Amino acid sequence: MLPNCLVQKKVLHPFRKQVGGTILAAKLAKERGWAINVGGGFHHCSSEKGGGFCVYADISLCIHFAFVRLNISRVMIIDLDAHQGNGHEMDFSDDKRVFILDMYNPGIYPLDFEARRYIDLGVEVKVRFKSIKQVTSLLELR
Questions:
Q1: Can you give the residue ranges of every domain in the chain?
Q2: pLDDT tens profile 97-110
Q3: 4-139 adopts what CATH topology?
Q4: Which of 28-32, 91-95, 127-131 has the lowest mean pLDDT?
Q5: Of 32, 47, 99, 122, which shows the fewest CB atoms inside 10 Å?
Q6: Are residues 106 and 124 in contact, defined by beta-carbon separation less than 8 angstroms?
Q7: Is 78 helix (H, G, I), strand (E, B) or coil?
């Protein structure tokens, strides 16, 4: 077991800052027309539970913030991570104001078949590399 003060300072506090960055990005996008937060995107965490390395549901929190505080009426989540974004999919399963586009590898974590039912546009990318040469040739880095 790790001491709580260490977990708070080294793990949870940095995660909370990233959640704040996601909320700030939403505010700035509304004000300026665009924004980005490279630290957020904890798409395995739902409002009910964490998952993967995701302990706070910043995407879901940000969308609720946008609906309530920013007077946004519809949101589109474009999730391009290799893993399915099951956290926000569960949170907005019945919310027609949220459109979810998820491009992911269906053969890796989290294998959440229930959450997949809530993807509005799913793009399953079945890619398996056997060597770094395959990756570099695909990316033309030779």
A1: 4-139
A2: 999 999 999 999 99
A3: Arginase; Chain A (3.40.800)
A4: 127-131
A5: 32
A6: yes
A7: strand
* Owner of token pair 């957020």: 40
Please give the order of strands across the beta sheet that includes 121-124.
Answer: 75-79, 98-104, 121-124
pLDDT value of residue 142:
46
Q: DSSP label at 47?
A: S
Q: Out of 13, 43, 44, 83, which one is annotated catalytic?
A: 44
* Residue 44: active-site member: yes
Any residues with CB less than 8 A from the CB of 3 and at least 6 apart, and which?
Answer: none
Decide: helix, strand or coil at residue 53: coil
Pair 69, 29: CB distance under 8 Å:
no
Task: Enter the tokens of residue 7.
Answer: 């977990």
Helices 58-69, 13-32: inter-axial angle, 10-degree rounding: 40
pTM equals 0.87
**Could you tell me which residues are beta bridge partners of residue 51?**
54
Give dist(CA 72, CA 22) in Å, integer: 15
